[in-house]
Amino acid sequence: MNATQRANADQIALWNDTAGRAWVDRQESLDRLFEPFEELLVEAVARSKAQRVLDIGCGTGSTTLAVARQVGTKGTAVGLDISEPMIALARERAERENSQARFVCADAQTYAFDAASFDLVISRFGVMFFDDSVRAFANLRRATTKGGELTAIVWRSPADNPFMTAAERAAAPFLPEIPKRRPDEPGQFAFADRTRVQAILEKSGWTEIAIEPLDVACTLPKHELDDYVSRLGPLGRVLSQLDERKRAEVLDTVRTAFAPYVHGDEVRFTAACWLAKARA
Ligand SMILES: C[S@@+](CC[C@H](N)C(=O)[O-])C[C@H]1O[C@@H](n2cnc3c(N)ncnc32)[C@H](O)[C@@H]1O
Fold first, then answer.
1. 59: Cβ below 6 Å to ligand 1?
2. Above 60 in pLDDT, residue 95?
């Protein structure tokens, strides 16, 4: 296995195991947290008048389901994700709300989409995990009709998003084994560098590329904070392997690091993102 294949295998393993399960268990809470982004994407669908929408890295399906409600029964809303547990929940939700949304469990880099079968490709934090991003975006462009659009929301840098890395920074002195975030690797911050994102989209054949900062106020109930930090991100992956005493010790320190974000019963932070748009 070469380095590229390994990176992809690592992501497949992660999203089918710890990360995927953490997102499934926290579906309602995460969807509430990231609802402002869902609204933004639904507005993008309405504005574009797209009828056939593809949601990449759709996870447990919230944005795809919202888009399905927007396009109605004459339209198509397809969510694609590499995580079996997340897609299983997305399908369950579609059935529960009698939605026409369809879900595909596959790798967006290699899935054989019908050519020109979508008017719009959207994503809420689902396109930063590819080992070969140019290949992935070229595949998505082929799936998009000529003149069709891409609207993807991705994270800016860890420095712009101190809330997102507060837990691992606070825990680092206790847990040197926490995986370090590397800007050149697939992961949450892989699209932090705007120039890199521009180059990826250009090389994969997209045009009229516009990448603008998007700052969104996010809130989470204070009582969900412990669960949030102990199950998600690099710290979440390590904490589950610790004994109870050590876990409690680390969590105490981590809680202190979040104090600046706690306002009464609420945790507030700004999500610093890019809104990347392009045309096929
Ligand atoms: C941060 S989650 C976002 C999930 C969802 N968009 C949301 O906002 O709730 C990232 C998602 O990207 C998916 N993903 C990672 N690599 C992928 C790939 N190569 N093809 C399709 N999906 C992928 C993961 O399984 C995960 O569900």
1. yes
2. yes
In this prediction, residues 115-132 reach a mean pLDDT of 97
CA distance 93 to 100: 11
Over range 72-91, report the average pLDDT: 97
Residue nearest to atom 18 of ligand 1 (CA): 107
- Interval 243-265 mean pLDDT: 89
Ligand 1 neighbour 126 (Cβ under 6 A): yes
Degrees to nearest 5, angle at CA 148 with 146 and 154: 130
**Average pLDDT of the segment spanning 205-209:** 98
**Cα–Cα separations (whole angstroms), residue 245 to 118, 143, 230, 248, 258:** 51, 51, 14, 5, 21
Q: Is the CB of 58 inside a 6 Å radius of any atom of ligand 1?
A: yes
Atom in ligand 1 nearest the alpha carbon of residue 60: 9
pLDDT-based confidence at 6, cuts 50/70/90? low
Does 232 sit in the ligand 1 pocket, CB within 6 Å? no
Is the pLDDT at 2 greater than 60, yes or no? no
Residue 124 Cβ contacting ligand 1 at under 6 Å: yes
